[in-house]
Specification:
The complex is a heterotrimer of chains A (351), B (86) and C (452). By secondary structure, chain A is α+β, with helices and mostly antiparallel strands. Chain A has 11 helices and 14 strands. Chain C has 2 domains: 154 residues, Lyase, Ornithine Decarboxylase, Chain A, domain 1, CATH 2.40.37.10; 256 residues, Alpha-Beta Barrel (TIM Barrel), CATH 3.20.20.10. The radius of gyration of chain C is 25 Å and the shape is globular. The chains are: A alpha+beta (351), B alpha+beta (86), C alpha/beta (452). Chains in contact: A-B, A-C, B-C.
């Protein structure tokens, strides 16, 4: 006879299962399939139209929370209210933009309400930021494309001393464009600078195949799990529409080394370019599970479940291996929702 | 002035306009006023109702009502081009 | 039967993608009292609008900063940045706490003398000191921070003429990895200008080089940049020792620490983004301690912190003049203060609270000042409970720069009061009158009559 599953109340953000999806729903699906936990899922949403709010088979109850820009204090007040009703035991935030606030609140949530999180420390979180990535790579022995932060037009002309064209030009927070000439860098600088603020980052363009890893660290230097994936089809927003799990020991080693030296706690995604010469360049670290995290569970590594165990302080043994050659293929699906439900979440902030 | 006939109201302050698909929120006083307008009451009657039960004087409320009705018109929740004082 | 509280009727279109109402609560929690005094009473007694300063908050901020640095580094000296707020009452709060004076003009210099700050405890900064002002500073044996070569030459000449040996430092600008890099003040570190200036001073032997100064920027949200600056200045101090056998007495890291205001366009709330004073102190003190000085060579660390010590101690109280509806349906609220006295609303989205209790409903609004000028916008977008004419509001975190950069434009400037540490309210600057402005004017005889 199997053991009874442990009941646990978990709050999850990122319910925006739209064409550029948040990781919330895939995380919840993985948790629902846990053999260890019987989960009650409390959705935390920012907008009344996040599809997850209405997916009652996956999300038991949803509360609106203040946008990250409203600040830590307002978030804390709202979480106090939600905790009173739901006795939260764990929160899994899934958006880059909200992590700053949740990391700041982690101690208070635990001490005041006993709510656990499993997040990187503020220093780790800041250090992996695009602007700091080159230094971060150096520190952890990873190859990073050469990059430079631009704050002025005047700096563009001299780029050719250190870089050869084409170049990647990246916004401080999002967006990446390719530029083949200094004139194009100027145009990208204007576009990205006005949208995301300065600096704008130029990065050496690395020719090769993009591969991705989703991984989980225990915060003590051990990598608990990692699954590598290659995108097979990409939407016009650059999001994976389909991908396949791959076996790439070098890539997994890279992730393992990163956890060993950085002591990263929680989930992350590495975006990596593999060149013809089998060199691996890290181009970005996303400080949370990616939207394709359900593939990891589908391949035998249920990272969200492992994260819950880690958050509860359990001793978790690293996963060994996963199914290679499994695909995920995303699809969209139209739900029919009564006005009454939309009304409730809009006016009362909960559903 | 007349409110569009098919406007849907909930007691939580949610207003839905089926002809445009727009949704709105109102505060309790606003909700009460929309309720009266739906019943076809005129500005004078509404003023009497509100000033009898709330801490506001007639002229003060008239100004707020005119502004509120003006908003309803801007938000295309009214029929025709009537005025608040009709 | 008792009547229910009334609130103006409001209707708002539901827009997805905008701030939901659960996100705005604390901004409109009423703030009815400042340091135990009712906003209503303060305005009644001193008129609206009114600046209020809290002595308690000022002293607490100073003591926190002093503790943060002194527990990490043995020799620390603060110098009150006059331009941040040079009301004499304010300056003397910080002087009583032990701050020297940091001034950037002859006017500020004389203010410091008037406040009875000893000349040797005045730091004279700035790019435009006149010969006369330099002479004054030399006579009082102040610390003169040289900004450019022309000033260096003038000072050398003055020293010779006066037969004195002025105590000087040079201001150094440098790349600390932050944007924008301030290279308009002082001598550049990377291109060798700073070393040239030092060489000229030491070889010229007319001026006594006693320290190095830098000021890397304003409202700096990244404390690590100060670590870089402290390391580079320390390096330069060691070089001077090695090259000329000369021990410099101090490193002045200037100011620029942020306050809890929210910069316009910032995604995070200022309260969350602003580093603590300990977070600034840590990289600065660590950098100097690790630079390789022997214990008795450790330079005095001078800090010219202004904003971080006073911003939160300042409030602006005001009154709603009127409400109106803009053509696009937005609510506009006109207040009796604007950019004329709240200059910082050009940079910050100031937190503004109503001073009376409200229900839970809010509306989006734009807040305008009273000036008949299109630029007079206090907040381009804010979510507040419905305000009505004569309601009071409280603007938070206005202690820095407003009481110095305010303009006598279109209308007169309001009074400033300070709530003392014993809770008494003192006027520290009187409300301006027609006379305060008119007394400076002179009218030629033939223009004395309008002849209308």
């Amino acid at each position: 006879m199997g053991m009874a599953k442990r009941r646990i109340n978990i709050a999850v953000t990122g319910l925006n299962a739209i064409d550029s999806p948040g990781p919330g729903i895939p995380v919840i699906r993985a948790l629902r399939e846990s053999s260890l936990f019987d989960v009650r899922i409390i959705g935390l949403s920012y907008e009344a139209l996040e599809p997850g709010i209405y997916m009652h088979h996956l999300v038991d109850k949803t509360y609106q929370i203040p946008l990250p820009a409203a600040g830590v204090e307002q978030l804390l007040n709202r979480l106090r209210y939600i905790h009173e009703a739901e006795q939260l035991e764990l929160i899994i935030p899934n958006f880059d933009a909200e992590l700053f606030n949740f990391i700041r609140l982690a101690d208070v949530l635990l001490k005041e309400m006993g709510i656990r999180t499993f997040l990187p420390g503020m220093e780790q979180f800041e250090a992996r930021h695009k602007v700091n990535l080159e230094a971060y790579g150096k520190e952890h022995g990873l190859k990073i494309p050469k990059s430079k932060s631009l704050t002025r037009h005047a700096e563009i002309a001299s780029l050719s001393h250190d870089f050869s064209y084409p170049l990647m030009v990246k916004g401080k927070f999002y967006d990446a464009l390719i530029a083949h000439t200094p004139e194009q860098v100027k145009a990208c600088f204007n576009t990205l600078g006005s949208k995301w603020g300065l600096p704008v980052i130029v990065q050496e363009f690395i020719q090769g195949q993009e591969v991705n890893v989703t991984a989980l660290g225990d915060g003590k230097g051990q990598m608990i799990g990692a699954v590598a994936m290659r995108k097979q089809y990409v939407t016009d927003k650059g999001k994976a529409w389909s991908g396949i799990s791959i076996d790439d020991e070098k890539l997994l080693d890279m992730a393992r080394r990163l956890f060993e030296t950085s002591l990263w706690r929680g989930g992350l995604e590495l975006e990596v370019i593999r060149t013809e010469e089998e060199e691996y360049y890290l181009i970005e670290i996303n400080p949370r599970f990616p939207a394709w995290i359900y593939l990891a569970a589908g391949c035998g590594q249920n990272h969200p479940e492992a994260l819950v165990r880690l958050a509860l302080g359990e001793d978790v043994k690293p996963f060994e291996g996963y199914d290679v050659g499994k695909l995920f293929i995303r699809y969209s699906y139209d739900m029919i929702v009564e006005l009454d439900e939309f009304m409730k979440i809009s006016t009362q902030g909960e559903l | 002035m007349k409110l569009k006939k098919n406007i849907a109201l909930s007691d939580t302050g949610f207003v839905f306009d089926p002809s445009t698909g727009n949704s709105f929120t109102v505060n309790p006083i606003g909700l009460e006023i929309i309720g009266y307008l739906k019943e076809g009451r005129n500005a004078e009657e509404i003023k009497r109702e509100i000033t009898a039960r709330y801490e506001t004087d007639g002229p003060g409320f008239e100004k707020d009502l005119a502004d509120f009705v003006n908003m309803l018109q801007k938000l295309k929740l009214t029929d025709g081009n009537g005025k608040a004082t009709d | 039967m008792k009547k229910q509280a009334y609130e103006r009727p409001i209707i708002q279109k539901l827009n997805t993608g905008l701030m939901n109402k659960y996100g705005t609560k604390t901004e409109y929690e009423p703030v009815t009292h400042i340091d135990g005094h009712a906003v209503h009473d303060l305005l009644q007694a001193h008129g609206s609008p009114l600046f209020v300063l809290s002595e308690k908050t000022m002293r607490q901020a100073f003591r926190d900063a002093n503790r943060a640095f002194k527990t990490r580094y043995p020799k620390v000296q603060f110098a009150w940045s006059y331009k941040t707020n040079y009301l004499s009452a304010v300056c003397n709060v910080y002087h009583q706490e032990g701050s020297w004076a940091e001034v950037v003009s002859g006017f500020e210099y004389r203010k410091a003398l008037d406040n009875k700050v000893p000349g040797t405890k005045i730091i004279f900064n700035g790019p435009a000191k006149t010969g006369e002002e330099l002479e004054l500073a030399i006579r009082h044996d102040s610390l003169i921070h040289i900004d450019h070569f022309d000033e260096l030459y003038s000072l050398t000449q003055l020293a010779e003429n006066m037969n004195r040996r002025p105590r000087v430092a040079i201001r150094v600008n440098m790349d600390t990895g932050v944007y924008p890099m301030w290279d308009r003040f002082g001598f550049n570190y990377e291109d060798g200008q700073a070393r040239d200036a030092i060489h000229m001073i030491v070889q010229g032997d007319k001026l006594e080089l006693v320290g190095l100064h830098c000021h890397i920027g304003t409202f700096m949200l990244s404390p690590s940049a100060y670590g870089v600056a402290a390391a580079k200045l320390s390096q330069l101090v060691m070089e001077v020792k090695k090259t000329y056998g000369k021990t410099l007495q101090y490193i002045d890291l200037g100011g620029g620490f942020a306050s809890k205001n929210t910069l316009k366009g910032s995604y995070l709330q200022g309260v969350d983004a602003c580093p603590t004073i300990d977070q600034y102190a840590e990289p600065i003190c660590t950098a100097i301690l690790n630079a390789g000085f022997t214990e008795d060579e450790l330079p005095l660390l001078i800090l010219e912190t202004g904003r971080a010590l006073i911003d939160e101690a300042g409030y602006l109280l005001g009154t709603v003049v009127s409400n109106k509806r803009l053509a696009d349906g937005r609510r506009a609220t006109i207040l009796d203060f604007g950019v004329n006295i709240l200059f910082t609303s050009f940079w910050y989205d100031h937190r503004i609270s109503p001073a009376q209790p409200f229900g839970q409903y809010t509306e989006d609004a734009v807040l305008y000042g009273p000036l008949c000028m299109n630029i007079d916008v206090v907040r381009e977008h804010i979510t507040l409970p419905p305000l009505k004419k004569d309601d009071r509001v409280v603007v938070h975190t206005v202690g820095a720069y407003n009481m110095t950069q305010w303009m006598q434009f279109i209308t007169l400037r309001p009074a400033v009061v300070m709530v003392g540490k014993d809770q008494t309210v003192s006027v520290v600057r009187k409300r301006e009158t027609m006379a305060s402005i008119q007394q400076e004017e002179q009218v030629p005889e033939h223009l004395k009559h309008p002849d209308l």
